Amino acid sequence: MRIDQLLASQYSRKEMKQALAKGQILVDGQAARKLSQNVDTDLQVVTIQGQPAPASNHHYWLLHKPRGVVTANRDAQHATVFDSLASYDRTPDLYALGRLDRDTSGLLLLTDNGPLGYQLLHPDAHVRKTYQVVVNGPLHADLPVLFATGSIFEDGYQCRPAQLTILASSAKQSRALIELSEGKFHQVKKMFLAVGVKVISLSRTQFGPFQLDQSLPYGAYRGLSSQEKQILVHILEESR
Ligand code: URA
């Protein structure tokens, strides 16, 4: 939210301009540059003339998405990720940070903080994601080098470098971890198809610094702690 929008309920435009000119609007201790600057009181400490700015009221949920539900706000056939939330937590304008396929499980962040989501999903944010993958064939020892240099989809698209760790490989089934910063449609499945194997199980275990809690059952969710919200700020700062 812009600073002037945040302060509008308590300060006139003239008061805001004067406070800005005197360096009395602080964002995490730094003087704000302009009233149109975007801030987030969930993630940053915003003060005006030494007083805390009115708080915004965004929600942040970490969901262990089960297989079978779709990452969409509504679907005629299937349950959605939002159906996993209790009705009192299903606030308006919630959306998922990145899409997981219906047959993919794992960590999914849900929020109603639109600008934050937009920035985190921007390719320049380079948010790293880790997936546990099972494929229906062997994973050869030279694949980590190929993935690290950027594998190439069947249609010629060159992927960004990804880190592949082979956990077990056999002729019929292999397991691996893959860490990448891209989020193209069916990204992981296409990367493995490009090297001749099909993904038969996919689960996201990490999104940026957030790890899937071992204790969180499929379909369960929890709110982010204030410390975790601060971590989101750092990701955004690093991406600027
Ligand atoms: N890559 C995929 O192919 N599917 C997902 O759900 C996520 C990443």
Written description of the protein model:
By secondary structure, this protein is α+β, with helices and mostly antiparallel strands. The protein folds into three domains: 3-56, Structural Genomics Hypothetical 15.5 Kd Protein In mrcA-pckA Intergenic Region, Chain A (Roll), CATH 3.10.290.10; 60-124 and 213-223, Alpha-Beta Plaits, CATH 3.30.70; 128-207, Alpha-L RNA-binding motif (Alpha-Beta Plaits), CATH 3.30.70.1560. Helices cover 21% and strands 25% of the residues. It has six helices and 13 strands. The protein has helices at 3-7, 13-21, 114-121, 143-149, 187-193, 226-239, and strands at residues 25-27, 30-31, 46-48, 51-52, 60-65, 95-96, 104-111, 129-135, 163-169, 174-180, 199-207, 210-211, 221-223. Strands 5, 6, 7, 8, 9, 10, 11, 12 and 13 form a nine-stranded mixed beta sheet that branches. It has a four-stranded antiparallel beta sheet with strand order 2-1-3-4. A hairpin with a 4-residue loop joins strand 9 (163-169) and strand 10. The longest helix is centred in the last third of the chain and has 14 residues, at 226-239. It starts with a helix and ends with a helix. The model has no long low-confidence stretch (mean pLDDT 90). Uracil binds next to helix 5.
Largest sheet: 9 strands, mixed
Order of secondary-structure elements: HHEEEEEEEHEHEEHEEEH
Rg over alpha carbons: 21 Å
CATH C-level label of the largest domain? Alpha Beta
Q: Quaternary status of these chains?
A: single chain
The CATH architecture of the largest domain comes to: 2-Layer Sandwich
Q: How many E-type strands?
A: 13
Strand % is 25-35%
CATH H-tier superfamily of the largest domain: Alpha-L RNA-binding motif
Q: What proportion of the residues is helical, as a percent range? A: 10-25%
Global geometry:
elongated
The unique ligands bound to this protein are: uracil
Distance N terminus to C terminus?
A: 17 Å
How would you state the average pLDDT, rounded? Answer: 90
Structural class, from secondary structure content? alpha+beta
What's the CATH topology label of the largest domain? Alpha-Beta Plaits
Given the structure, what is the number of helices?
6
Overall number of structural domains: 3
Which stretches are low in confidence, meaning pLDDT under 50 for 5 or more residues running?
none
